[in-house]
Specification:
Oligomer: single chain
Number of domains: 3
Distance between the termini: 23 Å
Number of strands: 15
Bound molecules: guanosine-5'-triphosphate
CATH class of the largest domain: Alpha Beta
Strand content: 15-25%
Largest sheet: 6 strands, mixed
Length: 440
């Protein structure tokens, strides 16, 4: 499980600036992917040796100071419940405020690492002025400038040293890990109960990790499956209603650990923005995805209804054209029996290896039939392709111009691989690499 780091602090202290600094987002790539919804609030960070999920709790526009306090408390509560580590950001320019003190009092009482950070310390001058903050009485204060990248590296060294990277990998090669994700109320727990069978209620909970996620093992036709965070899915409805945007975090966490993600949609609502966020993340994480349109029993149908809904899904999730779609009723059990068969199909492809010989035969054919466009007037040459991994199937193509291959050409090659090797339900990764680099 990747740890979650939450950035908390008043508006305008520089949370987003720090977030972007840590994420190091490359804009061009993003724009190339049609339809991927980028939520600026969440990101998986892989730039450092140890990956983590970063959450920016900001973006509020409070009108009154009362509201400000309330929202800061909400943010902090979220961070306390969900995060593994908290970056509490204050502002050297704005000085120490009562709201800061209030939150520090809350954070002091929790049993998680908290880093107290003063941002906008752009130089020695502000460094001297930051002395004020020592009256908070916290052990260590980090001064940084998110904008000018001052002190951020040192901060991250300390942060990563503290993070609870539990390497108790429950990696069991045989088992298929399934995450059930979706907005509140789409029917996740009903579906989970369906998949497990009501009688076998959490028969054998695998006791958890730091975040007490309880997974459930079950078998179908003697094949083992793991349903990720079963307890979380069942628990949620009963606890305090979560802020919509934070419910995404649960999804992220489950997706991270899954092989196959069941993206549950509510047939009554159609596709919503929240759905596209969750699916976008599953896509970026490279997981096998299946759309499960639930509550199909509530829809008044004629013979074009299913087609129309399918179209809506394809239009909203352009980046997941390969994901199968199932129309079910978790409540009545209609077609839920098909889910595991579909999971098996996706999983099989997700783990599939193709031989280098066969791969290159198809690759050469594809290149012959449709040459890569020139890159700034220079010819793009390919040397060979090889599969470097599974889950999802990942391919490296060696070329003279790794930077000069257009996204549409990449998609073309990917589609040829899909057709030739029957990768109809899994994401694929394609990496272009210069010939001199021998790593991986
Ligand atoms: N001088 C200076 N300005 C900074 C620094 N970091 C951020 N800022 C500026 O502070 C302002 C607020 O930064 P944001 O990152 O949007 O702040 P935020 O905390 O995310 O604000 P909300 O989204 O409203 O919660 C912007 O104008 C930034 O350019 C810094 O290190 N030094
Ligand atoms: N008509 C109909 N109702 C359903 C179906 N599946 C679930 N429901 C109802 O939808 C409501 C929400 O179902 P849950 O399973 O609790 O949804 P959830 O996604 O786990 O909800 P959260 O815990 O809020 O995330 C309940 O009242 C269910 O009875 C279905 O297939 N058809």
């Amino acid at each position: 499980m990747k740890p979650i780091i939450a950035i908390v602090g008043r508006p305008n202290v520089g949370k987003s600036t720090l977030f972007n600094r840590l994420v190091g987002r490359r804009k061009a790539m993003v724009d190339d992917m049609p339809g991927v919804t980028r939520d600026r609030n969440y990101a998986e960070v892989n730039r450092f040796d140890l990956p983590f999920i970063l959450v920016d709790t900001g973006g509020f526009e409070p009108e009154t100071s009362d509201k400000l306090l309330q929202q800061m408390r909400e943010q902090s509560r979220f961070a306390m419940d969900e995060a593994d580590l908290i970056l509490f950001v204050m502002d050297a320019r704005g000085g120490l405020t009562p709201a800061d003190r209030d939150v520090v009092e809350m954070l002091r009482r929790i049993n998680k690492p908290v880093f107290y950070i003063i941002n906008k310390v752009d130089g020695e001058k502000q460094e001297a002025e930051a002395g004020d903050f020592y009256s908070l009485g916290v052990d260590h204060i980090h001064t940084i400038s998110a904008e000018h990248n001052r002190g951020v590296g040192d901060l991250m060294d300390e942060v990563l040293a503290v993070l609870p990277y539990n390497r108790d990998k429950d990696e069991d090669e045989e088992i298929t890990r399934i995450a059930v994700v979706g907005r509140p109320n789409v029917g996740k727990s009903t579906l989970v109960n369906r998949l497990l069978g009501y009688e076998r209620v959490v028969a054998n909970p695998t006791a958890g990790t730091t975040r007490d996620a309880v997974d459930t093992r079950f078998t179908v036709n003697k094949k083992p499956y793991l349903l990720i965070d079963t307890a979380g899915i069942r628990r949620k409805g009963k606890t305090v209603q979560k802020i919509e945007k934070y419910s995404v975090v649960d999804a992220l966490r489950s997706i991270d650990r899954a092989d196959v993600v069941l993206i549950v949609l509510n047939a009554e609502d159609g596709v919503t923005e929240q759905d596209t966020k969750i699916a976008g993340y599953a896509y970026e994480a490279g997981r096998g995805c299946i759309f499960v349109v639930n509550k199909w029993d509530t829809v008044v149908k004629d013979n074009s209804t299913m087609g129309k809904f399918t179209e809506e899904i394809r239009r909203n999730f352009k980046y997941l054209p390969f994901a199968p779609i199932l129309f079910v009723s978790a409540q009545s059990g209609q077609r839920t029996g098909k889910i595991i068969a579909e999971v098996d199909l996706v999983m099989e492809q997700y783990c599939k290896r193709v031989s280098t010989g066969e791969l290159n035969r198809i690759f050469n054919q594809a290149v012959d039939e449709n040459h890569a466009p020139l890159d700034g007037g220079r010819r793009v040459k390919f040397y060979y392709a090889t599969q470097v991994g599974v889950k999802p199937p990942s391919f490296v193509v060696f070329t003279n111009r790794p930077e000069g291959i257009h996204f549409s050409y990449e998609r073309y090659i990917m589609n040829r691989f899909r057709e030739a090797f029957g990768f109809s339900g899994t994401p694929l990764k394609l990496i272009f690499r210069g010939r001199d680099k021998k790593d991986t």
